[in-house]
Amino acid sequence: MFIHPQYFVIALNMLMGWDATVFPRVDEFLPERWLRDRPMGNIHPYANIPFGAGPRMCVGRRVAEQEMYTLLTRVAQRFTVEYHHEDIELRVGLLAYPSRPLKFSFVSR
């Protein structure tokens, strides 16, 4: 089966995240921008929708989010995570991936 290239659509959601008109101070790591009281100003609710939205939203969204929260909470409770190596750049293809292997150290608390 041949699919003509004109029918391929690739949405790079990361590009929206680097748009200063959507997210102020795009070059800074600011996790507080996602707090409910909106300290960074009003961000459009559809500016970042990794699981989709509406009736075709990913059915596993809540399970996936709960698994991520559980994992991160357990790691943060049990370890101090350190990184003492060179900076990592982001490579972008069909997926985003790091430019070199990630070498984190997990130190028991």
Automatic annotation (TrEMBL):
Gene3D superfamilies recorded: Cytochrome P450 (1.10.630.10)
GO molecular function: heme binding; iron ion binding; monooxygenase activity; oxidoreductase activity, acting on paired donors, with incorporation or reduction of molecular oxygen
Keyword Iron: yes
Residues where heme binds: C58
PROSITE patterns: CYTOCHROME_P450
Record bears the keyword Amino-acid biosynthesis: no
Keywords: Heme, Iron, Metal-binding, Monooxygenase, Oxidoreductase
UniProt cross-references to Pfam families, sorted A to Z: p450
InterPro entries in alphabetical order: CYP11_CYP27_families (IPR050479), Cyt_P450 (IPR001128), Cyt_P450_CS (IPR017972), Cyt_P450_E_grp-I (IPR002401), Cyt_P450_sf (IPR036396)
Cofactors (names): heme
Tree of life domain: Eukaryota
Family designation: Belongs to the cytochrome P450 family.
PANTHER family: CYTOCHROME P450 (PTHR24279)
Protein name: Cytochrome P450 10
Source organism of this protein record: Chionoecetes opilio
Upper classification of the organism: Eukaryota, Metazoa, Ecdysozoa, Arthropoda, Crustacea
Gene: CYP10_2
